[in-house]
């Protein structure tokens, strides 16, 4: 099909929004259109293509097979256009906005971002932290650091580092019970967030699948960095990624009483929209990770 002045760009934009929300009403609210206008644009596109794109059912709609094939391609096309316009508007390489968990941000990124900025003086860096999985369509973030299995639809994912865990506590807290010599000694102390499934995984691997974690009062701090701070203060035993806290161990603020570490299949990944993979600032960030993080995989999985 030859793109001309009659090419239905508006109709495709409306289609993309409706396909994403599976709602004419929500798409209209996002685009500032009435439901009648949304319906008209979808009908215009369907007539042009000669295909029904949505199945209209009472109180809900679903994509037809044709609509399901078209939706991801249209979404990527608009993302590419947005990226191209963004790059053209910038007089320099702009600002790289990184979204990361508080723990990764404070214990790895903050210590290494200076290297990135020295290598890329024309790129400003803005670091934001959240424990929630962000929607790239609703945020200014260019890249994100996520914990998971590396599979998110529409996103390119690069492996950063394995995520394993083990109990850690302050030496003074361990001394308060005459030392921690076996796993069950930990249960003599306050367990920070006993509802965290990491605890059950670790005790099971240590040979105590029936450890009575349910007897402890529930507490949830929302970030590993906060749990580590509580452990340093002597307020309990936290289950942490030991590599992030080697400085605390070296300075005598924390100890790792057991060599046993465990994993739950979720690791750290760099992610960003597939359509943004060629953006200069994202390429620069990947090069920085290749330089500073030996475990980083420049090639995306299945690439």
Automatic annotation (TrEMBL):
It comes from the Bacteria. Residues 7-64 form the HTH lysR-type domain. PROSITE patterns: HTH_LYSR (PS50931). Coiled coil: none annotated. Keywords: DNA-binding, Transcription, Transcription regulation. InterPro entries: LysR-type_TF_proteobact-type, LysR_HTH_N, LysR_subst-bd, WH-like_DNA-bd_sf, WH_DNA-bd_sf. Pfam families: HTH_1, LysR_substrate. PANTHER family: GLYCINE CLEAVAGE SYSTEM TRANSCRIPTIONAL ACTIVATOR (PTHR30537:SF26), HTH-TYPE TRANSCRIPTIONAL REGULATOR (PTHR30537). Belongs to the LysR transcriptional regulatory family. This is LysR substrate-binding domain-containing protein. It comes from Rhizobium oryzicola. The lineage of its organism: Bacteria, Pseudomonadati, Pseudomonadota, Alphaproteobacteria, Hyphomicrobiales.
